[in-house]
Specification:
By secondary structure, the chain is mainly α. 48% of the residues lie in helices and 7% in strands. Residues 1-76 form the UDENN domain.
Length: 188
């Protein structure tokens, strides 16, 4: 799952490389408006005739992307780092599948770490019972629960969680790195 997401993360980072240099902050309204200059983005990349990218940029999803990721001061994430700092690496890996796969696996690992900040708290999947398992005679009845032992386990868990670092990390806002300008990514 994470590797598929990492592949899409790379794809969108490649597709939108340099998008920040085409953002314009308009301050004539009470609330500043962020505008994306589509013609400049397509023109500088030599993709004016590209129907797919034009449709992507005209879509509602991209408008939401610009409004969410347009502000110059917000919480940064893995996508911002890819777009700003990994441009050359992604270009270099285009002809080398083993390096590309290695990078995808690294990204997948980072995605997993972002979603699971406390790796020691892992949830195990319980397999589904097989069909007809409820008809078996040799199944023993469920044992009685020892209430004292349950309370002890709860108290131990609470004591451990109070000493552990918080499960959620505080999102710190920072200046979003702009990355290289769009003109650097002329595509054929």
């Amino acid at each position: 799952d994470k590797e598929v997401r990492a592949i899409f993360l790379r794809l969108f980072a490649q597709l939108f490389q340099g998008y920040r240099s085409c953002l314009q902050l308009i301050r004539i309204h009470a609330e500043p408006v962020i505008h994306f200059h589509k013609a400049a983005f397509l023109g500088q990349r030599g993709l004016i005739e590209n129907d797919f990218l034009t449709k992507v940029l005209n879509g509602m999803a991209f408008a939401g992307f610009v409004s969410e990721r347009g502000p110059p001061f917000r919480t940064c994430d893995l996508f911002d780092e890819l777009v700003a700092f990994e441009v050359e690496r992604i270009k270099a890996e285009e002809g080398n599948p083993p390096k590309m796969i290695k990078h995808v696996r690294e990204l997948a690992e980072q995605l997993f770490k972002n979603e699971n900040p406390n790796p020691h708290i892992a949830f195990q999947k319980v397999p589904r019972p097989t069909e007809g398992s409820h008809l078996r005679v040799h199944i023993l009845p469920f044992p009685r629960i020892n209430e004292c032992r349950v309370q002890e386990l709860l108290q131990e868990g609470l004591a451990r969680s109070q000493g552990a670092p918080p499960a959620t990390r505080g999102d710190k806002k920072c200046v979003v790195p702009a990355g290289p300008p769009v003109g650097m990514f002329i595509c054929s």
